[in-house]
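A favour between colleagues. Tell me how you read the following sequence-structure pair.

===
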Amino acid sequence: MVAKFASLLAIATVAISSVAAQAPTANLINGQCVTTYDASVDYFPEKLNTSEDKGTYFSIEYHNNYKVVKNSRTGRTYVLVQCGTPAPTDVNNATEIYQVPITKAAAMETTVVPYLEMIGAAESIKLIADGSLVSSPCFQKYLNTGDIAQLSATNETLQAEQIKSIQVQFGANPYDTVADTNTTVTTAQTYEPDVLGRASWLSYYAAFYNLESVANNLTQTMTNNYNRLKEAASHYSTKPVVAWTTYDAPSQYNNNTASYILSEASYKVGLTNDAGATMLNASSTTFASAADLLKAISNVDILIDETFIGSNLTAFLQNYNISEADQSKYKFLANKKVYREDGILTSSGGYDWFEAPVAMADALLEDMINAVNPSAPSDSYKRNWLRNIVLNEPIKTTTESNCSWAEDAPRPNLATQFNGNAFTLSGSSSSGANKVMTLNIAGALAAAVATLAYLS
């Protein structure tokens, strides 16, 4: 009897051990697949925490062995099936199915690259549309390893073969010579109306790699830091007025008719407000002449010029028809507060503005805070992207020699973890109890070292 009981106990123990072995405590990553499928097992124990997610254009729904990711802006749905397990049969014909975690991806838009870098998946990129426009110095270094191909712009046959060699194509083919395939995953991070919402797309990309835990840590840390910075910049009694403007030069795309534009993009409004300033409230956003625009912005304290042509003050004055004698009429010039978004460029002119700061919400807020208040978030802070052309600040060109991290590991965020008190702005009193900012010295030094390594 005892022997029989012992035998049954041994069998039960083996059975329990077998079930336990199939129930993972962490997501399978790096191409790992399930070897023995059990329909009762949850293969995604690490799920995205979207309870405080600012993203509006994507959502995710979990099932035991697959997840459903939706891009509501493009109307596309993707079913991500844990490899080694069966795909669901009750999905719409328009739904695309992928085996995850993926190991081979294409980045058809440069904005995709920093997201994959930050979750540690940069080396999964095996195909890139135009690597010369990618500003990341470590990705530039990776381009020269031979492990990644450039998408052919002219050879349609080669291009089709290149696309077939990867599992997922993030973004649309810019050359449009090959029909959209079922490897295309649409993006929408740059359409998000909120700065943190744009950064939250780290989670969207992480889902394809089963890297939810990495994305959760990144977004939570970034959100907390962003909110601390926002709070510190919220106590100015007088808030500077900011305008984001563009000179649209005559071209074939506008019937050779110049115009001047005031941007009211939602994320810029939010970024401006969160940095302790306020957006210009104008009755019009498009102007037929420089004179009309200048009349609307004459009392603006800070101007951010988004014009692509002309990178210095002389060109700015020409574009906006401002004579040297008239400069004193405009507060933004008298204040020496005219910025451009070209602080970091590639050697071929690619803007980092459209890459890293989209994914690094708190680092972007730091830049904007400093544009509003030169002593914040610290006296030693050096802006990354917003470049003051009145002060003739130089453009920083990235090359692979600037690389300071490994592409097989998560890319560091450029932001400092801020733990100080309320900022004070010259000419404005703080409504908070603290009139002097206590600097987070360790954080400031860490950020300075990271930035110097990135750009030196």
Residues 212-402 form a domain with the Rossmann fold fold (CATH 3.40.50.1980). The CA atoms of residues 420 and 438 lie 5 Å apart. The first strand starts at residue 58 and ends at 62.
